[in-house]
Amino acid sequence: MRAYFDKLLNPAQGQKPVALIYPLLIALFAGAVFSFSLAPYHYWWLAILSPALLYACLRQRSPKQAFAIGLAYGIGLWFVGAFWLYTSIHVYGDTNAFLSVLMILIMAVIMGLFSAVQTFVYRRFFPETPLTFAPLWVLFEWAKTWVFTGFPWLFAGYAFTERFLDGYAPLFGVFGVSFVVIVLACALVEVLNKRIFWLIPSAVLVLGAWGAAQFEFVEQKSEKPLRVSLIQGNIPQDLKWLTEYQMKTLFIYANLSKTEWGRDLIVWPESSIPMFQTDIQPFLDTMRVQAKKSGTAWVTGIPYWDQQESKATGQAMFYNSIMASGDESSGLYKKQRLVPFGEYIPLSGLLRWVLPALQNDPSMSGFSRGDSDQKPLNVKNHALGSAICYEVAYPNLTRRNASQSDFLVTVSNDAWFTGTAGPLQHLQMVQMRAKENGRWFIRATNTGVTAFIDHHGHIVKQAPMDKEAVLRGELPAMQGQTLYMRLSDWPVLIVSVLLLLLGWRFRPRKVNVAFKSRR
């Protein structure tokens, strides 16, 4: 076994690398275990071991072989890491088990192409070094925020949301943390390959994280903390949109809120009101009067039909939105990112036969995208930057919404993925966004995880999952801007591109000749 790994790590000059089947299996395994570095498992060291194995498997491989190895890694990564989709497709989509698994496998193959192209480009154009592998990894993570409308999940940096390397988050965001993680992973392989000098940059990066954590970019405002109550209604997903259950849903949320009137802010989760505002105006008026009477601001998720815009465009304009009303509060935020399989089904007209139970779900009926320059909600003279459900997984979108805000608020409905790792991975992303932007995050969900997260990304309080609950907290408003809030992802992206340009410019010629002869 020792001899096998020696051959895998460092094939002798002119020696044929180990048979491709073994690197493919190792890569598949490495991708499959990566998600266990994230919530709820938190085996953070797997976020280093997993890419380290991939890096080792690519040594002296041709670009075509690297593509196959990368694809194997990506399939393992996404099939296991995003298997929580099975619950939404099979349980709530009423799709049989075999077809559900097949759909996830197809998704894993498609998303696995990111890793496949990444490894192909790495072996085709660049020398074998951590300083080319890590930049490519980060650029392809960044690409996942916008290619195919974006599926920004399973980033290496999330494994260190509350440990060791998270000091880089307020400076360079999750991609900065990912960059450091991948350099450390590759350096581990180099050290095992007797290139001991890689211990020095590794030590510098780890110590740098500690040093970065000593900086405080934001500070607490002098005014009193905001007294906030979050309402978790725990409405089952298979009942949520049924006409006969709508009034019961409203009763549950109104009843849970009875004891909270008089506090500064009450927040209901995403689409906690399962009807358009035009269909339930008397209820909204009653709640608004109650809120003003008690001196409380009320923020709720609600499907919103913009009738004026619909008239102007000649088509129905529906939005997944957050509305603020009540005492000293106003504003409407329309969701900007509509996510496949979380809110709507891509090519839904072609897939109705695959997911028959979704035909009557309003959340799947084609919401419109909100504008990118929306103002924060105004609540008790505080600006609340908003994110609805999956939007919080997009670092730059959350950064834009956090600009000029005192708090961040996100509402979600993760009932689609009850009992899986999905909601906890989602919460971990909220923690990273709070740390990147130096703001407290108010998170209200239907079934969990409802929580208060401080400006360092730590969970201060959270409600039990899958239960009706009220979560109370007192949150200080923050002022100031982190370096990440000012500069976005540009520092990491620019450094990554520069490293790749240098790597391409000074790549060993003999490697290119070897590739040509192999083809």
UniProtKB/TrEMBL annotation:
UniProt GO BP: lipoprotein biosynthetic process
Q: What one GO molecular function would you report for this record?
A: N-acyltransferase activity
- InterPro entries according to UniProt: Apolipo_AcylTrfase, C-N_Hydrolase, C-N_Hydrolase_sf, LNT_N
Question: Its domain of life?
Answer: Bacteria
Question: Which NCBIfam families does this entry report, sorted A to Z?
Answer: lnt
Entry-linked HAMAP family: Lnt
What is the name attached to this protein's record?
A: Apolipoprotein N-acyltransferase
What is the taxonomic lineage of the source species?
Answer: Bacteria, Pseudomonadati, Pseudomonadota, Gammaproteobacteria, Moraxellales
Q: Which gene encodes it?
A: lnt
